[in-house]
Design brief:
The protein contains four helices and seven strands; from the N terminus they run E-H-H-E-E-E-H-E-H-E-E. With about 170 residues, the chain is an alpha+beta fold.
Amino acid sequence: MFEIRQAKPGEYELVRDFYYKMIDMVEDAEYHPGWIKNVYPEDAYLNESVEKGTMYLGWADGELAGAMIMNHDYNEGYNNVSWGVDAKREEITVFHILAILPTFSGQGFGDAMVQFVIDHGRKIGQKAIRLDVLDYNVPAERLYIKKGFQLRGEQSMYYEDTGWTGFRLYEYLL
């Protein structure tokens, strides 16, 4: 059984340890996300996301299997994309650093977490769900396309962990 819930205040260390474990587990993977401990995701960002209630955790039989952040924040490169719907920042949900531990891959947990974002966006009256993905992260792109996300553009964007890198930007209209 897989259940998703909002991280509780005080669970920062649990979240940080999850992402550190993820980084260690995918270090030599073909589709490495480029994450670096305390660079991206930065520890302060993880802590702030837990405390603000924007961090969500996926649990499989009592074990933390996945995590992600949902908010309205996005890279300034999003402003250079032709989106499918005109929307103010507060009318879209953007999800970040979606991660499923490799030991849980292939069980549909990534699919469940993306569906959770879509359902949550509908519930709160959002116009769209948006995200960016490294342009070489084929498994993530397959998941997003399968869930109905549309490619809206490609953009070189700067993040602390990747520097200037190519990203693909996707959108799901609600």
